[in-house]
Amino acid sequence: MAELWIETPRTFMRPLVLADAEGLFWLNRDPEVIRYSGDLPFASVATAAVFLRTYDQYSRYGVGRLAVIDKRSGSFLGWCGLRYGPEDDTYDLGFRFFRRHWGQGLATETAYASLQWGFAQRGLLRVVGRAMAANTASIRVLEKVGMRFCGAIDFEGCPGVLYAAEQEAFLQKQRPHY
Known about the structure:
By secondary structure, the protein is an alpha+beta fold. It contains 6 helices and 8 strands. Helix 1 crosses helix 2.
């Protein structure tokens, strides 16, 4: 199995560990951060720790959301990565960052690296990205990393959009500018 560790120009991406519980708790406490996710905030750091203890994407599917760590400071910036959905047999790209890191190109940088890793290291043929239609910032990230619009979907009971990237087309394109 390909190593679940990715390096980008500004970050290290690694599997989430129990020590990330506090970061996840605070990340999901910001209503703006989870506004378009359909997720609820964790009730406590302990609840986030329970989530981390039971998170089985790495062991079951060889993929997963990865902690994004700033190379300079070592701080937890958020998460990004691929998730396998057995209910529809798809690999999904997702990302979430503390609001203070928005607008810096980190989502694009780490999303691109996640796709590159999934296609080149794991041999995935297709990765999808889903977003609420009102989440224009996330949609822009999906477009910047080379995903194509596939259609409208229901996203957690709200209007949503589906994007996809195919391995062959993605690996032939140039890297985006962050």
